[in-house]
Each structure stands twice: as C-alpha cells, then as structure tokens.
C-alpha cells in the first residue's frame, strides 16, 4: 500500500494504542492523538522505533477546535489525510438513579460529540485534499444491547451507531465511507475500572464483574486489544471499500446481530 495517513484518537493506551501500532504495521503514517500527551508520545516513539512513521498530538476530543487542529497538524506533518479512527471514549458505570447532569455531559461530550467533531474535521480535510476517505468510529457491543449499570455509556454507543449510519448516507457522494467497530470485553485500563466498579457495587472482590460479563462470551475468552485492531485494519484498508454504514461486532460472540 502507498503510504496513507491515519489519525487515531485515544491512542495513548488500550485499544487505540493497538490500532495505532497495527495501522503503522499496515503501512500507514499514523497521528497518535490523546489528551495524555506523554502516552501519545510513547506510542509514536514505539512506531518510529519499529521503522514506521508517526507523530504524537495532544487533543481533547470533546473540544471541537482541538480536534480540527489535530487533523490539520496530522495532514501537514504527515503529508496527507486518509483515515480517521474516532476511538477515544470513557465508560463510568452509572446506576439509573445515580446519574447526574455532570456524568451525562462528560460521557456525551467525549463519546458522542467527540465523534461528531472527528467526522467534521475529517470531511474538511478530505474535501481540501480533493479525495474521499474512511471514517471509523468506536461503538461497542453495549451499543447494540443495553448493558447493566452502563446506561449513559450504552446509550452513547447506540448514538455512535446512529451517527455512523447517517454519516454513511450523507457522505457517500464525497467518496467517504463511515463504519464502526463494536468490541466486547477488552483487556484495557478501561475494562479494569469497569470491573472494579461493578464488583464493588455487588460487594464482591475485583474480577467478579469480569466473570459475570465473560459468561456471555461464546468464544470463552476476553478480547485482546489486538483482536479489535485487526477489525479496524480491515475497515481502514481497501478490502472494506464496498462497505459503509456498518457497525461490526468484534466481541467473541456476545451479541448476534
Ligand atoms: N475496553 C473495552 O472492553 C471496550 C469495549 C467496547 C468498546 N470500547 C471502546 O473502545 C474505545 C477505547 O477503549 P479502551 O478500553 O482502550 O479505553 P482506555 O480508557 O483504556 O483508553 C482510552 C484512551 O482514550 C484517551 N481519552 C479519553 N478521553 C479522551 C478525550 N476526551 N480526548 C482525547 N483522548 C481521550 C485516554 O487518555 C486513553 O488513552 C472507547 O471508545 C471504548 O468505549 C472499549
């Protein structure tokens, strides 16, 4: 593949990091974007040390200006713009009666508005460059089926699927495809925190929440971040050219849809 440019948000750790490393391996020059500048730099360094091309950029995806600035910088520093992966997300557990306006604002600002700003910034770049591109959004199995104790998170991931479908229809005339990936239970710092909170709420030790959720995994094991990165690799590459508006489940068989 000729050297294309991909930007991955929330790629300082977890799934985003695995996606950045995988896309670099696939031949992309990668903009590693995170609001943690230090972890973003570490991931970009790792890619460079492995012989790839990468830049680290700090941006908070809930801030529209920062997302547009990151896409512009990626385009300037890496010499093009072809793929955006709107991966950054947060997942606090929320019992219905404990949901506060602050939690809703925080989760929706990052998980939903962050995806909208990413889509807009990518469209601006693709138009300026005079070609189409690929937009890839992070949803979840929790965006297909409501998950217990995750009302705000689950609903934000349903919203990402809605955005993905709508943007696919609106942007097809520009040669832009829009798809989403829907992981299950992935071994990342995010999941560790969900497990801690769900286990504590049930009065159980850490690991209890994971064991409860894992009962629903057909393949009988938790996901590695690399399992998800492989799915995103497909969505970022030419083999998915005839696919748009889809939300691919990569969850070991938790949800059949
Ligand atoms: N871990 C799972 O089991 C799982 C399952 C389904 C979907 N997902 C989704 O996959 C994506 C990545 O999840 P993860 O498990 O790797 O999470 P994680 O918490 O381990 O990592 C998230 C990264 O995003 C960054 N980030 C958070 N808010 C940001 C913001 N406002 N601006 C820029 N960067 C920000 C963090 O600094 C961190 O580096 C999320 O959208 C998440 O909802 C995760």
Question: Could you give a short description of this structure?
Answer:
47% of the residues lie in helices and 15% in strands.
Task: Describe this protein's structure.
The protein is globular. The model has no long low-confidence stretch (mean pLDDT 96). Helices cover 47% and strands 15% of the residues. With 257 residues, it is of the alpha/beta class. The two termini are 32 Å apart. Strands 3-2-1-4-5-6-7 form a 7-stranded parallel sheet, sandwiched between helices. The protein contains 8 helices and 7 strands; from the N terminus they run βαβαβαβαβαβαααβ. The longest helix is centred in the middle third of the chain and has 29 residues. Nicotinamide-adenine-dinucleotide (NAD) binds next to helix 1 and helix 6.
Unreliable sequence segments: none
**Overall form:** globular
Mean pLDDT: 96
Strand content: 5-15%
Bound molecules: nicotinamide-adenine-dinucleotide
* Overall SS class: alpha/beta
Rg computed from alpha carbons, rounded to a whole number of angstroms: 17 Å
Distance between the termini: 32 Å
**Strand order across the largest sheet:** 3-2-1-4-5-6-7
| Count of helix runs | 8
In this structure, how is the largest beta sheet organized?
Answer: 7 strands, parallel
Fraction of residues in H or I helices:
40-55%
Secondary-structure element order, as H and E?
Answer: EHEHEHEHEHEHHHE
Number of strands: 7
């Amino acid at each position: 593949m000729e050297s294309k440019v991909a930007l991955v948000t929330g790629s300082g750790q977890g799934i985003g990091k695995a996606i950045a490393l995988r896309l670099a391996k696939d031949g992309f020059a990668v903009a590693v974007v995170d609001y943690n500048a230090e972890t973003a730099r570490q991931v970009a360094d790792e890619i460079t040390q492995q012989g790839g091309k990468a830049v680290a950029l700090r941006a908070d995806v809930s801030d529209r200006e920062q997302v547009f600035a990151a896409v512009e910088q990626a385009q300037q520093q890496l010499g093009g713009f072809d793929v955006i992966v709107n991966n950054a997300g947060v997942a606090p557990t929320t019992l219905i009666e404990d949901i506060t306006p602050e939690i809703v604002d925080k989760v929706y600002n990052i998980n939903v508005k962050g995806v909208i700003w990413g889509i807009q910034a990518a469209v601006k770049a693709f138009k300026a460059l005079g070609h189409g591109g690929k937009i890839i959004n992070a949803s979840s199995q929790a965006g297909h089926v409501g998950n217990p104790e995750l009302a705000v998170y689950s609903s934000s991931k349903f919203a990402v699927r809605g955005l993905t479908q709508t943007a696919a229809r609106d942007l097809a005339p520009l040669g832009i495809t829009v798809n989403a990936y829907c992981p299950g239970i992935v071994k990342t710092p995010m999941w560790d925190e969900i497990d801690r909170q769900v286990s504590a709420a049930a009065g159980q030790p850490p690991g209890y929440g994971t064991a409860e959720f894992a009962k629903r995994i057909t393949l009988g094991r938790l996901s590695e971040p690399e399992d998800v990165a492989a799915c995103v690799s497909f969505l970022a590459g030419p083999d998915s050219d005839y696919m748009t508006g889809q939300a691919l489940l990569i969850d070991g068989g938790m949800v059949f849809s």
